[in-house]
Amino acid sequence: MSIRKISHIGIAVNSLDAWIPFYRDILGLAFLGEEVVDSEQVRVAFFQIGESRIELLEPTDDSSAIAKHIEKRGEGFHHIAYEVDHIEQDLENLQKQEISLIHPVPKKGAHQTKIAFLHPASTGKVLTELCESLIQED
After folding, report:
1. Which long-range contacts (CB under 8 A, 24 or more apart) does 93-99 make?
2. How big is the chain by its Cα radius of gyration, in Å?
3. Which of the 8 DSSP states describes residue 39?
4. Can you give the residue ranges of every domain in the chain?
5. Average of per-residue pLDDT values in the chain
6. How many CA atoms lie within 13 A of 110 on its CB side?
7. Cα(19)–Cα(89) distance, rounded to whole angstroms?
8. pTM
9. Strand pairing partners for 46?
10. Within 13 Å of residue 9, how many CA atoms lie on the same side as its CB?
11. pLDDT tens-place string over residues 91-131
């Protein structure tokens, strides 16, 4: 694996507008903005905390995975995401180790990334995301 750091912790919420003030104004985290991720049917808001981020996820459709998660478990922790250097290679290696993948091929994620989720059945019941930045660092 090419894990570099924890990219972000995902938190499922019914409303970004209701929770942004808590993270920005009360906790004092740097607000990085909002974005819609059509492929996941979510609107996201990111906050910087050290080298990592907090990602709030609001469903944009009642049939989305986030909407179903909130319906079943309520608002709260959704996933942990790790930043990797070579997502395709990592996914290939994970498949060889018989790790169950939700996305065997990366897809477009927020903040100019490629993402893929690993199934909680293979990760100790923790939804795990791999993220690779599409932005080249100088």
Report:
1. 93/1, 94/1, 94/118, 98/122, 99/123
2. 15
3. G
4. 1-11+19-51
5. 94
6. 24
7. 36
8. 0.91
9. 33, 55
10. 9
11. 999 999 999 999 999 999 888 899 999 999 999 999 999 99
Q: In what order do the strands lie in the sheet with 128-133?
A: 30-37, 42-49, 52-59, 3-12, 76-84, 128-133, 113-118, 107-109
User: Distance (Å, rounded) from C-alpha 130 to C-alpha 85?
Assistant: 10
Cα(110)–Cα(54) distance, rounded to whole angstroms? 13
**CA–CA separation, 121 vs 138, rounded Å?**
38
Question: Which residue has tokens 């905390």?
Answer: 49
Please identify which residue in the block is written with the tokens 């903005």: 33
State both tokens at 108. Answer: 């477009």
What pLDDT score does 41 carry? Answer: 95
